[in-house]
Amino acid sequence: MYLGKVIGNVVATVKHPSYKDQKxxxxxxxxxxGSLKKATMLAVDTVDAGINDVVLVISEGKSASEILEFEKxxxxxxxIIAVVDHVDIxxxxx
Amino acid sequence: MKLGRVIGKVxxxxxxxxxxxxxxxxxxxxxxxxxxxGRPAVAADVVGSREGDLIYWVGSAEATFVLEDRQIPSDVSxxxxxxxxxxxxx
Lengths: 94, 90
Hints:
The complex is a heterodimer of chains A (about 90) and B (about 90).
Chain A: E1 2-11, E2 23-29, E3 41-45, E4 54-59, H1 61-67, E5 78-83
Parallel strand pairs in A: 3-5
Antiparallel strand pairs in A: 1-2, 1-4, 2-3, 4-5
Chain B: E1 2-10, E2 23-30, E3 41-45, E4 54-59, E5 76-81, E6 84-87
Parallel strand pairs in B: 3-5
Antiparallel strand pairs in B: 1-2, 1-4, 2-3, 4-5
């Protein structure tokens, strides 16, 4: 899983059936120090995450199909599974 | 999954039979500001995209599970056409 920040959402009427009734958010991968990477991803939301929320995203298809309770494999890979309240980074001497 | 822009089309008559009937588009992965991310890919399309469309695609094994009747040999498949995207005020 990786940390991400929800920066928006995506609306699509024409799509693969497995995406029907799924909330699709735009997520910027986030470094533990809070800086965001440019490679924005899309992820299906299962925890009602809102814009600017820090979230936990699982990015592996088998888990995604199981979390979203599909019987068979579906073309969904990234799923938001948690809204993060706080991240602690222990002080190491870099 | 990621956003992408359909920038061309690929025709191939001699190909894996499981790709029959699947359109192959040249697609440039982009971020929400339409800035290119990495190099273009050839993507299998099952949702009826057109050139110029902003789409979203899925990679790796999940790209093979886009058809009901069979798995297709693809590692990049277009799975949605974006109507609208909003990015919060930041």
